[in-house]
Amino acid sequence: MIDLDTFITTLYVMVDDFCQSDYEPERPKPGRHASLSRSEVITLALLGQWVQFPSERAFYRYAQHHLREAFPQLPDRSQFNRLQRTHRDAITAFALFLVQLLHAQSTAYEVLDSTAAVTRDAKRRGTGWLAGQADIGWSNRIGWYEGFHLLLCVTAQGVITGFGFGSASTHDQHLAATLFATRHTPSPRLPSTGLPAQGSYVADKGFAGERPRRQWNERYQVDLVTPPHPTSKRYHWPKALRHWLAHLRQIIETVNDKLLNTFRLARERPHDLTGFQARLAAKVALHNFCIWFNLQLDSLPLAFAELLDW
How many C-beta neighbours within 10 Å does residue 229 have? Predict the structure, then answer.
């Protein structure tokens, strides 16, 4: 284990190097200067995602009492939230910078899968804060829920190479089509999708379908490996082959658990879409950073529970 001060210092140095060398410089804005630099905002945004802080409010109380020496210009929490939303694209870019630093995509395959991101109790009345953005969908993990449908691309080592989300009712294939299209032709509106996979994509039956698989291959040069759809009469996989594919996909369950529990995604109850985007990007960036840190310590990449001496 390492102490928290060492972790924060290492994180800040890496974030600051990225902001100075690998990301576009900040544009001057009229009015007063922000109390925190972009590097400080990203560092605090990532640190605040640990489950050891039950909520964003709890993290900020901790920061005000224990991190003033490192961040003497710490503003009010509402101002920090605005800064975090302002720099959400930079947080996303840092998450994907770590993918390149780890050479994570030099691999035979990436696992493609989706999970539920709950934003509100589905049984509550009214439309909630994210009306028209979040809605009701089904998850095999939790049943009916209200929120977003999160799509992840993950390497065998556990590195998240790209991510995105839609409303909870969005089908897996629609999310995948958007990700493949944006990886093929990048769009500044969807910076989180990352670079195209160098190998194949491995996915479950939710992405299955001969027609979309063929279209994605023709349009975007995507090699997608899925078991045949249960209703398919033309194709059938033997049990051993299904078990082999399930074994390759096990890593996604571990990564989902890190995001949902270790980094508090299961507790998110956002009031604003940009706030959810910023915090989701921070969770992904922290996940990838912890993998990088563990590799420097010659530890298991996903041994996050043993990383910090809280």
Answer: 15
Work out the average pLDDT over 57-71.
94
What CATH number is associated with residue 186? Answer: 3.30.420
Q: What pLDDT score does 39 carry?
A: 96
Indicate the residue type of 75: P
Beta-sheet pairing, 109-120 with 200-202: parallel
Domain span at 165: 104-268
Count of structural domains within the chain: 1
Alpha-carbon gap, residue 204 to 98, rounded angstroms: 27
Q: Which of 249, 256, 283 is nearest to 268 (CA)?
A: 283
Beta carbons of 279 and 268 less than 8 angstroms apart: yes
The predicted pLDDT at position 144 comes to 95
Percent of the chain whose predicted confidence (pLDDT) is above 70 = 96
Mean pLDDT of 82-95: 96
Residue 252 belongs to some domain of the structure: yes
Contacts of residue 306, defined as CB under 8 A and 6 or more positions apart, other chains included, come to: 1, 299
